[in-house]
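Supplementary Methods, section 5.1.

A reviewer requested that the exact input to the structure prediction be made available. We therefore reproduce it here, unchanged from the version used in the analyses.
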Amino acid sequence: MTVAAPQTPPGECPQCWQHAYDKNAHRHLAPREDCPECVDHMINGCPNIVPKKKSSWW
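The structure derived from this sequence is encoded token-by-token as follows.
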């Protein structure tokens, strides 16, 4: 039984969100092996952040 990762909330990176909540994202790695995609995001930041909805407060 697989559980889908929750939908990425506004203002978050879809890749980081998936890698944090989907156990299948890192299944191909050996024990204690770093994920190259996660390391790249830690070094270079997240290029694909979901835009936040415009605030209707004002």
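Residues 36-44 form the longest helix (9 residues). These observations are discussed further in the main text.
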